[in-house]
Amino acid sequence: MSIDVINQHTGEKWYYSDIVKDHFFKPRNLLLDAPKDGEYDATGMVGSPACGDMMNMWVKIDPATERIIDLKWKTFGCGSAIAATSMYSVMLTENGGLTLAEALKVKPQQIMERLGGLPNRKIHCSVLADKAFHKTANNYFRKTGQYERIVIEGARVVDDRLNITDKDIEEAVLEGAQTLEEVQNKLKVGVGLSQDSLTEIEQLVRFYSEKYYG
Amino acid sequence: MKRIYLDHAAGTPLDPRVKEIMEPYLIEEFGNPGGLYREGRRAKDAIENARETVAGVLNCSTNEIVFTSGGTEGDVMALVGTARAYAEKGKHIISTTIEHHAVLSTLMALQKEGFEITLVEVEPNGIVDPKKIEAAMRPDTILVSVMYANNEIGTIQPIAEIAKMIRKYGSLTSVPIFHTDACQAAGYLDLDVSRLNVDLMTINGTKIYGPKGSGALFVRKGVRIKPIFFGGAQEARRRPGTENVPAIVGFAEALKIVSEEREKESARLRELRDYFIERLTKEIPRTILNGDARERLPNNVNVSILDIEGEATILYLDSHEIACSTGSACTSESLDPSHVILALGKPYEHAHASIRFSLGRETSKLDVDYVMEKLPEVVKILRKISPITVDENATGMSHPEAFAGEGMRAKAKSKSYKI
Description:
The complex is a heterodimer of chains A (214) and B (419). The longest helix of chain A is centred in the middle third of the chain and has 21 residues, at 123-143. Chain A is an alpha+beta fold and 214 residues long. In chain A, 43% of the residues lie in helices and 13% in strands. Chain A has a three-stranded antiparallel sheet with strand order 1-2-3, with helices on one face. In chain A, strands 4-5 form a two-stranded antiparallel ribbon. Chain A folds into two domains: 18-149, Alpha-Beta Complex (Sufe protein. Chain: A), CATH 3.90.1010.10; 157-213, Arc Repressor Mutant, subunit A (Orthogonal Bundle), CATH 1.10.10. Chain A has helices at 18-25, 79-93, 100-103, 108-115, 123-143, 166-174, 180-187, 195-213, and strands at 42-47, 54-61, 68-76, 157-159, 164-165. The radius of gyration of chain A is 18 Å and the shape is globular. Helix content of chain B is 38%, strand content 14%. Chain B has twelve helices and 15 strands. Chain B has helices at residues 16-26, 38-58, 71-85, 101-112, 130-136, 159-167, 193-196, 245-283, 310-319, 339-343, 348-352, 365-385; strands spanning 4-5, 65-68, 92-96, 116-120, 141-145, 177-181, 200-204, 215-219, 287-289, 300-305, 322-323, 325-326, 354-358, 410-412, 415-417.
């Protein structure tokens, strides 16, 4: 029950950067009233297996240009989930809005950079916004009959340099590895992983451990 | 604006009277109690006086008190010490699902050493049924550990009743040994070990307006504990290492003061607690009290304000100068939701939404009124942000589909769901 983390970018001892605080206390693009039927073109809801936060997203898309005209969200989540999603919604809709293809390329790390950093333990919060959008985009593709564009989360590379995917981690867990250290041993990657990868791998280890042994 | 500090279960400010009595031992009276010369003798005297004070409060002999560095050390010493000392008599240990991590993690470590651990579940009100502990008893049970009062939800456990049951299986000081973690209870409940009938009891200074890094373990005469530290002969070889004289002196004084003021302060806080709980549950819709309403510490208020996440609530309250804590996974280092709220049979969303206010000496009705002026606004804002409406009586998670990969079966937070 303690708040004890240090911002990895600024070294600040207080929990969140000023930008994070600003977006936390004044979240942008929040959905305030229940949407009417057909008001939004697509929606998606995801939960974070790491911490249990939930996120719901709604988008309006210009069918001609595929630009994101509007993006609204709600979350049952902590300060960083609120701030990260608020920032993400700005990034996708500013300057006339990104196209779907562009938006799908936005990485959680870019949200973190715009926020001026989040504590390491909070990285999964920015991943949640990203996941919610991916699910929403799939919902849009399904509704518009573009089945070939639907991307179901499959083998996803979590460390570029060492080319480790979530499936590798799933297999390591299935082989009995229960901790980050054990997974590292299985994958024979004791060194060379970035902090971002480590955090994500740790989350995946937890997720798959619970999935198969929980 | 002044801060409204409502996290006394985490830590209390140092009582100025305690500070005063400690001060000489920080500077002038610096001697090592092991020294035979005057400085050493004076330090030794201070420790022995402190021991008498503590023994007086606990109604035990001075040689039954071992000074420690706090609650965690006391718990580890009690559990590891007795487990190793009585291992030849059996390898089974009983405890409960709502213990502090100092107990639970130690038991997990003992499990790796070959001990078998049974964690008895508590009732939905957060209190363990002694009959369920009895049902878990085995011929090879050597140790039972049940906390006196829970740190998160403040529920008071029937320690004397459990002790009575355990005595049917073995007399005092013989196996099964009975330990209680009384860290949260120390300021508010009776600590008389002859009435409680416990063999071991952990208390610490952090929760009773004493110094951090202070505490004591009561070890009933005749109970064996193997030391977990090795070195000199301090504390009858049970706790080697130069004694922390100022902390020991301060701890004893703090314990003496809280026990003298206990009844009056408990009565005052109990009234304030009930007033606070009533306002919370009446004025903020969908707010649920966690833990029994009566059998709880006078200073503990723990509620789940459904549909909103605890860390966000805390950050909002902090901006209004109010300090409190939560059982939300988002604030824990391990990203695990409160094991105590889950042990009540509630889904993780209730833990995610739990807020603990723990009152203290400086807490007044005005403070509670101030919280009740600010909190409903905060809840309104965060509920607007939230996409979910959790069932008040739910036992499973509200939106398993959100956790499933598309086309996968949903499994999240230790539970599996079919969609």
